[in-house]
Amino acid sequence: MNSMEIAPRISVDEKIRFGKPVISGTRIPVDLILGKLAGGMTYKEVMDEYEITREDILAVLNYAAKSLSSEKIKVIA
């Protein structure tokens, strides 16, 4: 499988990060960027550390939001 875009600016490739979603054209996993932002890093700090753009960060957030919106949770009593 070659790299396949699964959302704008987000792609997967089984040869890159074990097929985890990454920012297209990089090896930077979506979950890494989410974790850095959740940990308190600013957009600027993340952009500088990983050499990505604001648009990349927004694509990560958009992908995460859409992924969560389709998630179904079963409550087991």
Automatic annotation (TrEMBL):
Q: Which PANTHER family match?
A: SSL5025 PROTEIN, SSR2962 PROTEIN
Q: Which lineage?
A: Archaea, Methanobacteriati, Methanobacteriota, Stenosarchaea group, Methanomicrobia
Extract the signal peptide range: none
Q: What is this protein called?
A: DUF433 domain-containing protein
Q: Which domain of life is it from?
A: Archaea
Q: Source species, please?
A: Candidatus Methanoperedens nitratireducens
Return the SUPFAM superfamilies for the record. Homeodomain-like (SSF46689)
Matches recorded under Gene3D superfamilies: Winged helix-like DNA-binding domain superfamily/Winged helix DNA-binding domain (1.10.10.10)
